[in-house]
Amino acid sequence: MENEVNSKNFIETIIEKDLAEGKCTEICTRFPPEPNGYLHIGHAKSILLNYGLAKKYGGKFNMRFDDTNPTKEKLEFVESIQEDIRWLGAKWDETLFASNYFPQMYESAVKLIKKGKAYVSDLSAEQIREYRGTLTEPGKEDPSVNRSVEENLALFEDMKNGKFADGEKVLRARIDMASPNMNMRDPVIYRVAHMTHHNTGDDWCIYPMYDFAHPIEDAIEGITHSICTLEFEDHRPLYDWVVMELGYKNEPEGHPRQIEFAKLYLKNIVTGKRYIKKLVEEGIVDGWDDPRLVSISGLRRRGFTPESIQMFVDLGGISKANSTSDYAMLEYCIREDLKVKRPRVMAVLDPVKVIIDNYPEGQIEMLSVPNNQENEDLGSREVPFGREIYIEREDFMEEPPKKYFRMFPGNEVRLMNAYFVKCVDFKKDADGKVTEIHCTYDPASKGGNSPDGRKVKGTIHWVAAETAKEVTVRLYENIIDEEKGVYNEDGSLNLNPNSLVELSHCLVEPSLADAKAYESFQFVRNGFFCVDYKDSTENHPVFNRIVSLKSSFKLPKQEA
Predict the structure, then answer these.
(1) pLDDT at 310 over 60
(2) Each residue of 359-381: pLDDT tens digit?
(3) CA 520 to CA 522: how far, in whole Å?
């Protein structure tokens, strides 16, 4: 029981206390993205946290789009966000839009004006910044602060009716221009914006600001715990002010409570929307789902699984303290998830032909090969073997260094799951490149074991030449040059010129001929690979390397 208590994060402790004290009978959480871009790995933490809490405590989880800023929002982003959340496995109870509450938000603003808690201002955005003061100096009152309720109501209605240009008037909350919290110094709660909205069209030309809209949305939906990231901690007094002034705290269905947690940061990784957008627009990456990005769609295309992302979030933990994780930890999670789930197949990325001189010409035999030695439930498959095969070019050396145990003249190696073979000759072209290797095989060593007990130190993988399938393979590195850091002095990104290497004449065993989009495999010795959904064709699959097989990354030791 003690271990169970210790395993709870601080948000779970708060929720359990609220339930025990009767502050709520059923919890309700939400994920509230602005539909102005694609989701990334940081959003996954918030999605899985909010959904996981609702699921754990038998509550509700809402999908709500905070679409109060039509200048950047698109239906494309609304659809992509929903697709990403479904893929992560988070099931929401309702799909909601902040824009559907525009009438209530307008009435809420009118209510504040009537209470003397809001006023129409003539100041420009720059003047408002000047009047706000500094962290050490209080702000100055807006010249319009003492307008009458009647004048403010009339001006606000004129704003709604389109009588003012963008930026000509704003509605400000009347709070405290001397507050030590800058967010409480008469914040703007409505602005004029003559823009067509993706959901409401041209019905409105005034739009609420996020800090005003968000607590109203939470209260209307009966959100009990409004869980957000740490940068909103200084905004919480304004959140509570809006809820209190509008009377939601007196209503049994509305007791929203904001709780902040630390964001998920990745070292030397691009997550900022504006940087990703620039990479997309300049054609440096292949869209928002480029496998080099940590957008959720990019991770899915590369071959990451929802389970691996959940593991990554769990390992990072939920706390109030900001921290940075290595991308290597995310790679560790996908290796752990795939290593016993996916079949291990043979693929040769840089092929060179091997001819087994004493093997019967024209013969193709089928070898029974286990799909995964660590998971017998995956069964086995038949792999063709013949006189001519292909191996990796790096698995042969004309003059090997010491402790090189793969193929070289006079050396015997094991062909994985097949036979012992000994290199007897090789041919080179005019440029000195090896074009053909000749070997002999031991028929008694079928299955890769010699009946006389002799040992070989090298084992190499292969594909049969007659049945091999040609594919394209893409090898990825971080799009950032990690040695130089993410940003240059001018704010531009330090790009890695080798972030994508495409190999167009790779050969794989025939079992991969019918591989479907998003299907993943372990290519023996080369890593985990996934079929690209976008560029693969029926006759020519494209495989994205998800992750290599080995890493120096180790999980941090857990405190006792």
Answers:
(1) yes
(2) 999 999 999 999 999 999 999 99
(3) 7
